[in-house]
Automatic annotation (TrEMBL):
Source taxon at top rank: Bacteria
Stretches that traverse the bilayer: 6-39
Keywords: Membrane, Transmembrane, Transmembrane helix
Organism: Streptomyces justiciae
Protein name: DUF2273 domain-containing protein
Amino acid sequence: MSMAVIGMIAGMALGFAGYFGGFGAFLLVAALGAIGFVVGRFMEGDLEIGDFFRTRDDRRDRRGPR
């Protein structure tokens, strides 16, 4: 499935939630979708937990000398 189709499905889900459930439902669906996206990236191996907890100095050191 292409990223465009996935984006369209996500947009439709947010639209339905906003229309039928109001703004609170829209925010809930958006937040759960973002959490699901991050968990999916973890499961695929694209993200590591340490990526969220490194300091700026650690990130700079990983790039190597300039």
